[in-house]
Amino acid sequence: MLFYRKRFIIACWVLLLTYACKSQTALVGDEEKQPTNWTKKELLFEDSGTQDWTKKWFLDGERAVLDNTPMGMYYSAGPEAKNDTCHAVLWTKETFEGNMLIEFDYTRADYSDGFVNIIYFHATGKGGAEYPEDISLWNEKRRVPSMRIYYRHMNAYHISYAVGKANGGEDYIRLRRYEPAKRTKLAGSEIPPDTFNSGLFKPFYTYHVQVARYKNTIEMHIQNKQDAQDHLTLRWDASSAPLCNKGRIGLRHMYTRSSIYKDFKVWRIQKR
Fold first, then answer.
1. CB of 265 within 8 A of CB of 104?
2. Span 170-186, pLDDT tens digits
């Protein structure tokens, strides 16, 4: 626990220093690609990240640390790379149905190398007595949150992002659709296109992240809050896979990863 406290204090100081400086990063991505303006929205869920996280979330993994602070919810997976007990997934207690927009402020609080953050949405169990659709009924099976448990036994969308390349290596953003009725491996679950070398998610810079699912279109917009020109909008056509239309939202940290989340909101959306 002392290890995490020291790491969190360091992260807070670096974050405060970062806010004092304006990033000079060049524009990322295509200037013509702008996020959809969802003019019809109904707020379904809200968490500032500064209050008791256990009221609105539950956790897979016993080695994660969560701490609510004035800057948001500090969330750290376990410290040992390649040890599945150090993975963690934080799930909303609420489930969400239909077209929706997820948004939050995200600050990477680590220099970890090679591992990812993932956002799951519309996640349910594959069904049956052992893995019912309500994943809270089989939490015990995810005490050690190995990746294979999720893609073998859940229907869900998955976006990998904020790849932990500590020294400027290749990063990627990737959409997947878990279909346990069709495959038991992660390979083949990708929905193209992948995005490489975005240059986003630099440690201790805060990004506003939006993830929308409208029918079979999935959109992700990332905006550096310290630099208006540092942003990216991505869209995927997910119609090649069956629609996921109801389920929970999950924040996965692979081992060694830590982040701060603030002002997490979920909206029901319509196009104008």
1. yes
2. 789 999 999 999 999 99
CA distances to 70, 75, 131, 272 from 252, rounded to whole Å, are 22, 10, 19, 32
CB under 8 A, 24+ apart: contacts of 152-155: 152/180, 152/184, 153/125, 153/126, 153/180, 154/120, 154/123, 154/124, 154/125, 154/126, 154/178, 154/180, 155/122, 155/123, 155/124, 155/125, 155/126, 155/179, 155/180, 155/242, 155/244, 155/247
pLDDT tens digits, 50-63: 999 999 999 999 99
Q: Which two tokens stand for residue 137?
A: 């009924």
> Which distant-in-sequence residues (6+ apart) come within 8 Å of 2 by Cβ?
none
Closest by CA to 101, choosing from 23, 177, 44, is: 44
Domains of the chain: 2-22+50-270 (2.60.120.200)
Distance CA 4, CA 110 (A): 11
pTM higher than 0.85 for the full model? yes
Query: Which pLDDT does position 33 carry in this prediction?
Result: 66
User: What is the identity of the amino acid at 176?
Assistant: R
